[in-house]
Amino acid sequence: AEALWPEAERWLALSVEADPEYPDARVFRAFVFRRLDRLDEAREELAAFDAIDDQPADMVRLLDDFGLREALGQAR
Q1: Roughly what angle, to the nearest 10 degrees, separates helices 57-66 and 23-35?
Q2: In whole angstroms, what is the distance from residue 50 CA to residue 37 CA?
């Protein structure tokens, strides 16, 4: 299962490349980077998500439910 994390990041990178403002990809990529212990990159993904005007409530809730912002030391 550990080998799947880099593969997930690769697919999410393609998604972000196709649409940099796709909020789901930014959130999931932040989770993957956190799992890979690439914390600065996870913070960058959250910053990119925060720059998106129309953030889906389910993505905001996901971040809150899993405490990703707190884990990365980032307040909203």
Answers
A1: 20
A2: 21
Q: What is the model's pTM?
A: 0.91
Provide Rg for the chain, Cα atoms.
12
- Cα angle: 21, vertex 55, 15; to 5 degrees: 30
Cα(18)–Cα(62) distance, integer angstroms: 23
Residue pointed to by tokens 């909203």 = 76
Instruction: Give per-residue pLDDT as tens, 7-53.
Output: 999 999 999 999 999 999 999 999 999 999 999 999 999 999 999 99
Q: Is 73 exposed, middle or buried (0-12, 13-18, 19+ CB in 10 A)?
A: exposed
